[in-house]
Queue: 2 jobs
Job 1
Amino acid sequence: MTDQVEQLIGRTIDGRYRIEAQIGAGGMGVVYRARQLNVRRDVAIKVLHRERLGDARAVAQFLEEATAVSQLRSPHSVTLLDVGELGEGDAFLVMELV
């Protein structure tokens, strides 16, 4: 997991998000503070742990999280801005940074 974190910091993903720092981690993935370059705003990006990619259930759960977050409309929840994959097949979610 540490290699994954170090490889992403300083990197631009999807041509739009520059990863700046790790701000959290959990069982499913790592959360980074990033800069959305095209609109110049800070965002949070959650990347699924690379070792979880072979686990179809974990990937499905990660994508279900994206679906659930995208349907929430509450001042107490974050807004999902984007979903994508890195070149290595890692899934990521882009959310507002709170």
Job 2
Amino acid sequence: MGFKAKICVGFCLFVATLLISATITLGSSESNQEMMICKMKCEQTIGIDQEDEKPRCIKSCEKYHKEKGKWEREGDRGQRGDTSGSERGWGNDRQQRYSDNPYVFEDQHFTARLETEQGNVRVLQKFSDRSELFNGIEKYRASFLEAEPQTFIVPNYRDAEALIFVANGQGTITLIERDSRQSHNIKRGDLFHVPAGITVYLTNTDNNERLVLANILHSVSVPGDLQIFSVGGGDPESSFFNAFSHEVIEAAFNVDRESAQKLIGQQKQQQDIFKKATKEQIRSLAGEDKGRLWPFGDRKETSRHTSIYKNKPSVANENGILHEVDSKDFPDLQDINVAVSFFNITRGSMAGPFYNTKATQVLMILNGVGRFEMACPHLSEQTTRTHTGEINPRYEQVSSELRHGTVVVIPVGHPVVIEASGEQNLEVIGFGLNSDENEWFPLAGRENVLSRWEDEALELTFGFPAQEVKRVIQKQNQKLFFKGPARRGRASG
């Protein structure tokens, strides 16, 4: 058994050496030759007594080549590696950047977008298109919508459930359900659920502020594919009515050709889903929350919204505030299996390390500048198998700068830290996907997981007397939010 273990460990080191050697020799521009050389060395170097290792070696070459090519094509701007000491900073050019960080999404990863003078929509690429690591959340998409003051967004519906968070501004949202029309005034901090197939339109009712929405979409048809359906607002082809013949439209509405043209031809004059509205139109669309039942409807009005600020903060201290909403607080969240967390991290402070037990967390940066660090077993090239077939994990640091519009995916169980720069607070909305029965556990500070271990477990794990370990893990008396490295440095200086 000892001999087999040596062969296995030697094999893993050998494959890593092949990949590194091929990379140095050829560079990223000759990736096909790189894979060929890697396979060739598998054939030439592995001995007869290790013949069964050749398929594994070749498979490792192919997997490495596939993942490396995908990340390089996407032009990743994330970072990996040690950024301690003098190179730590916000936008420091000396920090080394790598192209193999699939956890960070920036502007170039928003593959569907519409930008106009009155507003814009940006939809993030499929998570599973970025990496196979995200196959478990392939039904979800993330998006931002921004509308200028006094702007109307034309009615539309999607083949997806939508969870909307109001990151900035105020407005009115109107839903057309089967037997009612419901309008609700929305403001910063509000959460709104729009079911699939329900027609919705939005109005930014403010005279000065931009309306900014951060959204999670849950597809109900093809996983991760989204389709928007609209009767107009863009060019003539943007109305689904234009897909039908004139005769069908005339018969459906019982009108003549000239009248039908008002439905299918009006887009030629105003080619935009974002419309500048007059003050009178804004006043009419806004007003108090209201619902209207159709003449023969007796369905009760449904509340599809709440506020992230409805309950007291889950955690609050001088270093930050955490607000949380789950399906117990807002039953609509059960439909899309999502929980919501809003972090407001004081400048120079940090949240974590912590981890989630069952939810994959999608963090969307709303305001401020910061940085995150995460312990990741997936990217490490040092993982080896023992002679018993078990995995000895090696964890690698994944890190990146954070700014408005950055999206970060934190997989289940991955310890993470979110830091705010020393200049301003960092605001982050977190959507916990597949959140049923999820819990988050702090790894430092008050109520951290380690503080609940038995003394013997501490001694056997860390190799020091339990009391010495406790002095370390119990020193921090705050929960979740702490002074970050920047503030600690200033205090000690």
